[in-house]
Amino acid sequence: MADKKNSRGINKKTLMLVQFSILLAIEAVFCFTVLGSIPFTPVVVATLAMIPVIITGMLLGVKAGTLMGFFAGLFSFIVWTFMPPSALAFVFSPVYAENFIEVIGSLFICFVPRILVGTVAGALYNHMSKTFSENNAISYIIGATLGSLTNTALVVAGIALFFGERVSGLMGDAIMVIVNSLIIFNGVPEAIVSAIICPAVCIPVRKIFTK
Fold it and tell me: Is residue 72 within 8 Å of 64, Cβ to Cβ?
């Protein structure tokens, strides 16, 4: 009897590891190829990289989502350090920082928002699924939308806090105009896309997981 329980525990851990690995591979594709980026302008790039993080948090749990968020931050750090897609590389990589404050700011922006996407999405889904059914579209939509907006809000706040003057000087405009542009042209579309894709993926996949 004990052997059967141990075997089930091992099989469950193995299955979860396989599922996490598949989502991690998708995350890598989104981060390192053009499939995960939608460039609007040379300095404004919308990304789909938060979708695997959100899905991981809602399907595999808060801890797994948080870990996936860390990998998303790590992949982002690599991209912005070695192959920066725009002149805003200093915002996401300390390699281009001009002082210690900017080093802290770039590490915060690169890692913390992405880590918290998985945490927020997973926690919100768990909370909402207690009100609605476990595999309900509303729970996924709320988790995906607010998870995506968590990334946008923290990135925008980090830019305003740590890099306001430098970004304004580079782009030749007021920081609030830049912040509003990031929210409108990046944050809102990414939240809408997440709210559409995540439930469409999570609902059938959870049914398969359950079986």
Answer: no
How far is 59 from 55, CA to CA, in rounded Å?
Answer: 6
Q: What is the pTM of this model?
A: 0.88
179 vs 1: CA distance, rounded Å? 59
Element (H, E) at 139: helix 137-171
- The span from the CA of 95 to the CA of 106, in Å, is 9
CA angle 79, 82, 88 (to 5 degrees): 70
**Alpha-carbon distance 73 to 17, whole Å?**
20
How is residue 108 written in tokens? 């915060």
Amino acid sitting at position 70? F
Contacts of 200 (CB under 8 A, 6+ apart): none
Q: Which residue pairs from 191-195 have beta carbons closer than 8 angstroms and sit at least 24 positions apart in sequence?
A: 191/144, 191/145, 191/148, 191/149, 191/152, 193/48, 193/51, 194/50, 194/51, 194/54, 194/144, 194/145, 194/147, 194/148, 195/141, 195/144, 195/145, 195/148
118-151 per-position pLDDT tens digit: 999 999 999 998 888 788 999 999 999 999 999 9
To the nearest whole percent, how much of the chain has pLDDT over 70?
83
> DSSP for 151-204?
HHHHHHHHHHHHHHHHHHHHHTS-HHHHHHHHIIIIIHHHHHHHHHHHHHHHHH
